[in-house]
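Standup notes, structure subgroup. Blocker cleared on the spermidine input:
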Amino acid sequence: MSQLVRMFLVVFVVAIGLMYATVYLNSSEGYSGGNTLTVYNWGDYVDPELIARFEEETGIKVIYQTFDSNEAMMTKIKQGGTTYDVAIPSEYAVSKMKAEKLLKEIDHSLLPNLKHIDPSFLGLSFDPQNTHSIPYFWGTVGIVFNPKMVGDLTFDSWDDLWDESLRNNVFLLDGAREVMGMGLNSLGYSLNDTDEAHLQEALAKLAKLTPNVKAIVGDEIKMLIANEEAAAGLVWSGDASEIMTENEELDYVVPKEGSNLWFDNMVIPKTARNLEGAHKFINFMLDPEVAAQNAEYVGYSTPNKDALAFLPEEISGDKRFYPDKELTERLEVYNNLGPRMLSHYNELFLEFKMHRK
Ligand code: SPD
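Run returned:
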């Protein structure tokens, strides 16, 4: 064999090897198809026992991956190289992903359990016919606090978080829209405001909160507040509910100026390979007993009306987590502000974070 032929063979074998390695590496970002299903969800947002039960009942192996913000999840799906079959974006992210053609249509005929969803959670403006999204959990953004650590503060106003007695005693969840929204709401503006002067005013107000902010954190906020590492925190309602089962001294309130009402949803990204499995998974999560078990485990509020009967009254009757009309009327849902404004919110949030350093 001539040296040239030998060299050609080596190059050929290396190229084939690289091709296989690429396929293999991509598969670690969620290989679906065949008998596997890749689910991409927020951290701490499902009862693992339910995943095991789904696998057992269907024979489908679930590859489960997590994200910590809508923005991170959207970037990952948009950049490709992933094969997620089911993901769980919030409402404004559904609207954005739909507009960017990142979602597949959902076949309602494969979801007999859809009838269990309370109709008030269907047909919402971000997906009016629910062609691309099915409700998963919902909730509010508010303040969890430890009454024995905050003196007379009741947090009926966002401004209480700025009280100087709370120096280095507040945790914030790591979310651009939540933190910017709080700044805007505290000034009486909408959390969907796009007026640059209002946004700068909100940023300046947030800068004044800096001395009180101990840290801006992800899911660990639950453990930190339950362990009394700070007196108060800006959190999603479901996290507050979970924290409060760990530490019964704590309370949760949505300030009077208003806050965010959010909806997280199951969707099928355009990258999906196991469509049948994705529909089976969504339908499984819609089963009332499954939805109740999931809600009890993660602490978030279920939109499944028939699941409520399986929840203890102290959960389903708790107005802090299943708020009545009077409270929800004070709340706003995030709009899809468009890619430029959404990245502007992210930049402002980053500026706030830098200000702390
Ligand atoms: N640890 C699970 C957190 C899920 C919260 N989703 C809320 C999104 C609100 N935009």
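Discussed briefly. Residues 16-30 have pLDDT under 50 and may be disordered.
Next: hand off to the docking folks.
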